[in-house]
Automatic annotation (TrEMBL):
It catalyses: tRNA(Tyr) + L-tyrosine + ATP = L-tyrosyl-tRNA(Tyr) + AMP + diphosphate + H(+). The keyword Protein biosynthesis applies. The keyword RNA-binding applies. GO terms for biological process: post-embryonic development; reproductive structure development; tyrosyl-tRNA aminoacylation. Belongs to the class-I aminoacyl-tRNA synthetase family. Residues 438-495 form the RNA-binding S4 domain. Keywords: Aminoacyl-tRNA synthetase, ATP-binding, Ligase, Mitochondrion, Nucleotide-binding, Protein biosynthesis, RNA-binding, Transit peptide. Catalyzes the attachment of tyrosine to tRNA(Tyr) in a two-step reaction: tyrosine is first activated by ATP to form Tyr-AMP and then transferred to the acceptor end of tRNA(Tyr). One of its GO terms (cellular component) is chloroplast stroma. This is Tyrosine--tRNA ligase.
Length: 504
């Protein structure tokens, strides 16, 4: 009974319904408290405390063994995750709307959120509708280009929909392999609950706060020396461009995001890439200073790099976008097919939910005689494409891959070709200019090859394909049956270089 009373007292201490627990000098003004709607979530019968317990794996251990932990602010985070009587943690990751879509570098944040969800915790994706107007200097050598309000709002809407779609699919897809026995993962009723994840926009709380409010109630807890000591700030101060006051204050805005959600939404863990460490610790420090409580944690994961140290997620054509509107599932799938052998196993651990034993089997198979090249890359491409684009997107990517493979017997259709049109070079030519013309001439007119001699040489080498069929005749003329559905030609030089000719 005594221990139960002590536990109840501790619970009451950590969940005040008002700001009475603050020291007098830390009390907030009535107006600011009203804006923040300060109250910590109270316990209810819906928490894990009041429900039968399941053996839930420790998410920190899972992330560590898969190479998804760079740093944590306190080892207590792991201890909390191991406590079956703890209320589920509430974890957030922020995404600034600097483009219409997130890219591959952002995907790790979504994957880590998915791991927390699958291990019984609640997750929040924060869209930076307010902070995106300022710009995060972390990992940047120059100030980000300023975006107009209309563009930011459009980007926010697109990213919100994208994140919701991926996380919702991950939670409802019962075929998604998480790499651990099903009875160790949270039961499906709770896992699929709409309350398990939220997508919010920080503009919703910043729009009500004036500059004077913010400086008086938050800015006074920030120490300039500490802010300048953050790695992201130090690097910019040492550069020729320096850092603007706007960017300098970004860490305080992100810190306030954590503070606000800790107080009003019960969010107690922030995750982010290793370049976000300074911003994350600014948040835990602000919570500790203003509220005089512990219990806010930060976890960072490594940036997605290749073995040579270059960023993974960039191609010659730019970023690898997650939105199918900006990069087709086919092109997304192809990017993972081309991952070097030296990186593929590590990326399977980081970017998929496959069991580690299965990944080890794939790794061992790569060393055996008779291994078919790119088999492991194909599995990586399938798993990541399924997670981002769903079964439908994966099917589209696989269909296009088979259909567009030089030498493929698959009959080409206009839908498949047009589906990748935005991802490969293309041009338009009039019908009369194409029909009955020499293929070598069309290859030069379209800009696909530099010269007729280059086209003839490629044909002699056996590397020129028309609609996936090898061309072995230098005098090949374009005939009516060559034109797919009367409007398209697909030229290929080897396996990778392609051009679509749209015929009008």
């Amino acid at each position: 009974m005594a221990s139960a009373a002590a536990a109840a007292a501790m619970t009451a201490l950590l969940r005040p319904s008002t700001t009475h627990f603050l020291n007098p000098r830390h009390r907030l003004s009535p107006r600011f408290s009203r804006l923040c709607n300060f109250s910590l979530p109270s316990s209810s019968p819906q928490t894990l405390e009041a429900q039968p317990q399941l053996a839930i794996p420790n998410v920190v251990d899972i992330l560590r063994e898969r190479g998804l932990v760079e740093s944590i602010t306190s080892d207590n985070l792991r201890s909390v995750c191991s406590n079956p009587n703890s209320i589920p943690l509430k974890v957030y990751c922020g995404f600034d709307p600097t483009a219409e879509s997130l890219h591959l570098g952002n995907l790790i944040g979504i994957i880590v959120l998915a791991w927390f969800r699958r291990c019984g915790h609640k997750t929040v994706a924060l869209i930076g509708g307010a902070t995106g107007r300022v710009g995060d200097p972390s990992g940047k050598s120059l100030e980000r280009p300023e975006l107009d309000v209309e563009t930011i709002e459009k980007n926010c809407a697109q990213i919100r929909a994208l994140v919701h779609r991926i996380l919702h699919r991950a939670s409802t897809n019962r075929e998604l392999k998480m790499g651990y026995p099903k009875d160790e993962i949270l039961n499906s009723d709770r896992k699929d609950s709409d309350n398990c994840f939220l997508v919010v926009d920080n503009f919703d709380w910043y729009k009500e706060i004036t500059l004077l409010d913010f400086l008086r109630e938050v800015g006074r807890y920030a120490r300039v020396g500490t802010m300048m000591a953050k790695e992201s700030v130090k690097k910019r101060l040492m550069s020729e461009e320096g850092i603007s006051y706007t960017e300098f204050t970004y860490q305080l805005l992100q810190a306030y995001d954590f503070f606000y959600m800790f107080k009003n939404m019960g969010v107690n863990v922030q995750i982010g890439g290793s370049d976000q460490w300074g911003n994350i610790t600014a948040g835990t420090e602000l919570i500790r200073k203003i509220l005089q409580v512990e219990g806010a944690y930060g976890l960072t994961f490594p940036l997605l790099l290749k073995s040579d140290g270059s960023k993974f997620g960039k191609s010659e054509d730019g970023a690898i976008w997650l939105s199918p509107a900006m990069l087709s599932p086919y092109k997304f799938y192809q990017y993972f097919i081309s991952v070097p052998d030296v990186d593929v196993v590590r990326f399977l651990k980081i970017l998929t939910f496959l069991n580690l034993e299965e990944i080890q089997e794939l790794e061992e198979a790569m060393k055996k005689p008779g291994y078919v090249p790119n088999t492991t890359q194909k599995r990586l491409a399938e798993e990541v494409t399924r997670f981002v684009h769903g079964e439908e997107g994966l099917a589209e990517a696989v269909k296009a891959t088979k259909a567009l493979k030089p030498g493929s017997e698959t009959e080409l259709d206009p839908e498949t070709i047009e589906g990748i049109a935005k991802d490969v070079p293309s041009c338009s030519l009039p019908y009369h200019q194409v029909l009955n013309s020499l293929l070598v001439e069309i290859s030069v007119t379209s800009g696909f090859l530099a010269s007729k001699s280059a086209a003839r040489r490629l044909i002699k080498q056996g590397g020129f394909y028309l609609n996936n069929k090898r061309v072995d005749n230098e005098g090949k003329m374009i005939e009516e049956f060559d034109i797919v559905s009367g409007k398209l030609l697909l030229l290929s030089a080897g396996k990778k270089n392609k051009m679509i000719i749209k015929i009008s």
